[in-house]
Amino acid sequence: MDIQSFSVKQDVSFGVGLIEKLGDYVKKMGGTKVLLVTDPGLVKAGLTERVEGILNKAGIPYVTFSEVEPDPGCWVVEKAVKCMTSEKADLVVAFGGGSAMDTAKSAALVGYSGKRIHDYWGYYLPVEHDTVPVIAIPTTAGTGSEVTRNTVITDENKYKMVILNDNMLPQCALLDPELITTLPVSVAAATGLDALIHAVECYLSDLATPFSDAVAEKAMELIGPALPRFVANRKDIQAASDMLMGSTLAGITLSLCLPNQAHALSHPLTGYYHIPHGLANAMLFPTTMEYNALADRGKYKKIYNRLRCEYPYTDNFEPSMLIEYLKKLNEDLGLPRNLGEMGVTDEFMEEMLTDAQKTKIWEHCPRSTDVEQMRMLYEKAITR
Known about the structure:
By secondary structure, the chain is α/β, with parallel strands linked by helices. Helix content is about 50%, strand content about 10%.
């Protein structure tokens, strides 16, 4: 008999306008000075200023770190750690998308230890010092980083270090749908697909449990109908609410399982071509799902019906129907047709294959994949 286990160790709050309660959460967690980690785009949009105003009103001292980059590197984490320690902050507020979340969580993990984020590269390495607590506030519906135990940080050699550690999990996540209603359409599409891919790939992982399946199914049920509506009109608060909750549920499955080939192959694309993570996943996803169809045990039909819950299909289902639906979804959302349209060639193929092989994801994919099959998946996603 297989032994299955899972745990959810976090407080998650959801509500329109919830951001106004941030001061209460900081005080409840005993924070005396906050490191607010955000990105330049949110500063420019005025959203960071809103958070700063809330902290000021609550009488909570803070320092803002806004040097987050789209592809967070170890050098940015080191700057954030230096800001935190020099300002003696004892609580981190991660405010933004996946890049801000990963930077904040990594800085909090390093804390006041004097170590580097490189020292924790890998899976569940021991942490022998006190980490800094994190409140995570997502401004995109995609990465689910507010509820995951992992970050992805680029090292000096362009390698995407995947770090999984229980100490990386934010203690508190605040979900406010209002915060994602100003997303640009391209970001809404790419991050929304990233959330969907989290749910689907974890659903197909051989690490899946009945609990993670239930969470993934609900995530797909929320995201499937909401994603096109949200991309069409980000002010649709119900669509925004469904996307944000769906993204968080998908993030929970990501902490319980591991994703599949799309994620393993997308990380090198971000490292070598600086393609946003969600967009790289979206370009690979129809190809990897087509590849995995040979190993389907009936879940493709369930995925199809969850994504199209208003129009479920029961008779004569073929996995190819799901593949065609995913291709059409990319097209409807205005995404490129393939990686080639984004400038990807075989120039860094060998380097990307070397980096892609370093993850444990390959051990838990629905269909086994050797290096030549990885090459084939890249080539197909470049030209399809």
